[in-house]
């Protein structure tokens, strides 16, 4: 991918989230709560295991994780969350998918719609943009953990579909059903990844100019700041020059 890489997009937003650690913890706890409804055994529940690994990567205290699992085991985690996905277009015709976990559908719908409207976007119907994305497993490693050839060989052996190596990172993608196997194999060889999970990977990207990029980044920040929002996927591409100006 030319221009502003997917890794940089993720790291920019991850850096912003790191400044809001309490909100990150809230988001991760909700994911653990929802995942634990199926089973509290991470060995038989790949989603729960991924959520627990993400929590540990964010330096969430083990006591916090154990507390959530204990409540889930007792059938009383104090939550009644629904998973709701919103789709629409942001500034510059950027396709966006917003995945949420909420205990109040009306509140979340209102806040997400308001954010899109304020920054020049609009929400669409279900599946209005999902066809522009593929649901895949993605594992990101810093470029320093291995050479491109070594990562490619290891990922291929693990069952991955593709590896893109850049100056900043190695991006490994695989079929959604192979995610746990691929992640575990690569983690055993290279250590904990920078980021890992199921993602909506855009089939094509839309170049965004400086004015629209500014509005788009504001929209992403507002959505990231919303406790109900678990993840935001978008098919934008911002050049390094523009990104440097906007994030200076």
Written account of the structure:
With 248 residues, this protein is α+β, with helices and mostly antiparallel strands. It folds into 3 domains: 6-73, Integrase, N-terminal zinc-binding domain (Arc Repressor Mutant, subunit A, Orthogonal Bundle); 83-128 and 204-229 and 242-246, Alpha-Beta Plaits (2-Layer Sandwich), CATH 3.30.70; 132-202, 2-Layer Sandwich (Alpha-Beta Plaits). The chain contains 9 helices and 10 strands. Strands 3-1-2-9 form a 4-stranded antiparallel β-sheet. A 4-stranded antiparallel β-sheet has the order 5-6-4-7, covered by helices on one side. A two-stranded parallel sheet has the order 8-10. A hairpin with a 3-residue loop joins β5 and β6 (169-175). The longest helix has 16 residues, at 21-36. It is globular and about 45 Å long. The two termini are 23 Å apart.
| CATH level 1 class label of the largest domain | Alpha Beta
The tally of strands reads 10
Note the gap between the termini.
Answer: 23 Å
As residue ranges, the low-confidence spans are: 1-5
Q: Could you say what the CATH topology of the largest domain is called?
A: Alpha-Beta Plaits
Please state the CA-atom Rg, rounded to the nearest Å.
18 Å
What is the level-2 CATH architecture name of the largest domain? Answer: 2-Layer Sandwich
Number of helices: 9
Average predicted local confidence, pLDDT: 87
């Amino acid at each position: 991918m030319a221009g502003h890489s997917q890794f940089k997009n993720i790291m920019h937003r991850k850096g912003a989230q790191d400044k809001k650690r309490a909100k990150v913890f809230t988001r991760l706890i909700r994911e653990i709560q929802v995942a634990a409804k199926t089973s509290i055994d991470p060995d038989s529940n790949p989603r729960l295991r991924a959520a627990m690994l993400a929590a540990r990567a964010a330096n969430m205290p083990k006591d916090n994780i154990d507390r959530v699992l204990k409540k889930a085991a007792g059938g009383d985690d104090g939550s009644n969350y629904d998973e709701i996905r919103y789709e629409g277009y942001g500034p510059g015709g950027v396709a966006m998918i917003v995945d949420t976990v909420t205990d109040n559908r009306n509140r979340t719908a209102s806040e997400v719609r308001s954010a899109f409207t304020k920054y020049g976007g609009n929400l669409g119907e279900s599946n209005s943009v999902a066809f522009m994305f593929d649901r895949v497993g993605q594992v990101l490693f810093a470029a320093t953990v291995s050479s491109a050839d070594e990562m490619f060989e290891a990922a291929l052996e693990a069952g991955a579909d593709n590896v893109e190596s850049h100056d900043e990172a190695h991006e490994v993608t695989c079929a959604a059903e192979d995610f746990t196997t691929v992640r575990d194999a690569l983690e055993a060889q290279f250590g904990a990844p920078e980021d890992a999970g199921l993602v909506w990977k855009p089939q094509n990207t839309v170049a965004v100019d400086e004015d629209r990029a500014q509005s788009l980044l504001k929209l992403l920040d507002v959505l990231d700041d919303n406790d109900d929002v678990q993840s935001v996927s978008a098919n934008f591409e911002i050049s390094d020059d523009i990104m440097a100006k906007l994030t200076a």
